[in-house]
Design brief:
115 residues; 434 Repressor (Amino-terminal Domain); 2 domains; 8 helices; 66% helix; elongated
Length: 115
């Protein structure tokens, strides 16, 4: 519960919002919101869903089930399912290929970046 409260506070602060702003946006009272953010009170699922929608993050991210801040699109879900059916060896080969491609397409550093 503490991690969820911390994540909620962090998202609010990163958005440069006051607790009152978020409370109003997600439809809860200010005192209730303060208790969610300080982990004095559990956040109901419907309130968590509204907070996720308000901040533009997935429920899994807000509830600390993942550190991936967005929900996977359906085409990525299908790829993930297919990936899981592969052997460990083939999964490792795919991971290596992704890393190689990622390195290749990184933006080149400029002279300004080198300073």
């Amino acid at each position: 519960m503490q991690r969820i409260a911390e994540r909620l506070r962090q998202l609010r602060e990163n958005a440069d919002l006051k607790q009152k702003d978020v409370a109003e946006a997600i439809g809860v009272g200010l005192d209730a919101y303060k208790n969610y953010e300080t982990a004095r009170r559990s956040i109901p699922a419907d309130v968590l869903r509204e907070a996720a929608r308000f901040f533009g993050y997935s429920m899994d991210y807000l509830s600390c089930l993942t550190d991936i801040p967005f929900a996977l699109r359906s085409d990525f879900e299908e790829l993930a399912e297919q990936y899981c059916t592969l052997t460990r060896y083939d999964q490792e080969r795919i991971q290596e290929r992704i890393m190689t491609m990622h390195e290749r397409y990184k933006p080149h550093r400029t002279l300004k970046d080198r300073k």
